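hiii so my PI (J.) wants the whole complex modelled not just the main chain, which honestly fair. so below is everything: four entries, each one labled with what it is. i double checked the lines twice but i was tired so who knows lol
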Amino acid sequence: MPVTPLPRKHLDLPCAGCVADSLPERLRSSFCSTLFRHAYEAEQPIFHEGTPALAVFSILQGSVLLWRMGHAGDQVVISMRGPGCLIGYRAVILGRPYTVTAEPLERTIVCTIPRETFTRVVRENPELALRLLEVMARDSFRIEDTLTARCMDSVSKRTARFLLFLDRESKAVPELRRGFHLPAKREDLARIIGTTPETLSRTLHTLASRGFLDLSDKQIRVLNVEALQRVAE
Amino acid sequence: MPVTPLPRKHLDLPCAGCVADSLPERLRSSFCSTLFRHAYEAEQPIFHEGTPALAVFSILQGSVLLWRMGHAGDQVVISMRGPGCLIGYRAVILGRPYTVTAEPLERTIVCTIPRETFTRVVRENPELALRLLEVMARDSFRIEDTLTARCMDSVSKRTARFLLFLDRESKAVPELRRGFHLPAKREDLARIIGTTPETLSRTLHTLASRGFLDLSDKQIRVLNVEALQRVAE
DNA sequence: CGGTCCATTGAGCACCATCAAGACTTGTGG
DNA sequence: CCACAAGTCTTGATGGTGCTCAATGGACCG
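here's the output for the full assembly
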């Protein structure tokens, strides 16, 4: 359910992230002019697990959660993606249904690259294929990281690590920011970390009682980075 | 620690799996003639997590476990790979150290493709780059599957699923076989499933007591596929 | 026959999910 | 402005799953 297509005049900005960036100059503008942007509201999935992969999406603004549904209706969050990330490309490459649901955590603007456009432009531009190999390798490592963390580390470690990540993110110089924000809701935070809201609440308050966090005013503020790093190991 | 390079005369067989297969005919033989095969004994890692990625390996025979080490010395098995699989290519593509250790479960024969050879041949053969995109997408999905299973499913579900996989594998027509064997040791089996030998033992004996398995003669035999499927969901 | 390796079994416990209830916030309508 | 409702966060109590540690039982082998 695409919501608000942005006005056409915005299309001269880099619009398909790394896809457009890796195209030869002469192709770039014509490629971008065929694409549209859409804004998705929070919780309105960009695509659903199990549905045919009709397009690849480049995230321009916002943040997206990729998750899978279990038999029992429970979710496993695979990854969190922000501006500059490409999503849905693996399913398109293999011609298979999406294996995850892509759910915006906030209002998120994406550039939609239809399946045919994507496969054609990749086939015709070897440079782009090489770039995609790198992108996918990086994404694959990130999934591996998630797997490792979920299997080996306690909730408190994973929590500390994620808070440190958000903290670094918020302090990064603007150009380096990847655009992740602290998810407003505890429930989202819990899903990302891979636990329940109850356990997360206990974990956060334990960390706060040790003076590492400040939870007083509805925001999570990191007070002691070094201590958190020790918790995160 | 490469062990026994096979005699040169064997090199006319397909030697670098999907890499050679995707090369134009005219290049294939010259490409393969530059490569060597090595046999690695069980438990003698082909490469180690954290070491510079000097080569990509194509598995010709045997089976390999990819795992990561935790701070506490514990291991997380990421994936199991068999004949036809390519390993180590993500690290080579990104020019980063290997993120996993590749440990043969049995005597395993691989074809070694040096980093420079690999990157050159990928750069020069767009067809191969496209093929690699598919290979990596598939591998990435498999890691995602592992993550999902580890986070959502109980040990008994994962055990049942893996036993069914091995059972199907052993009954497959030879051409379709991927060459996985039942790991001889309980400890290896436990690592693959993501649990401890103790818990695995209990799980197996529970399944056996329900008549789904036969553990009597040192081999695990599946007696009731349907029942196991229900356990695996 | 003792030694080693492996599988099994038992006992205890830690971590975390679940269920349930209470506290606090926010929004809505009178 | 207050009252009520709905949603969110917190806290408590409880239980299950699976890990750890330790002991036992076989199998194989010199």
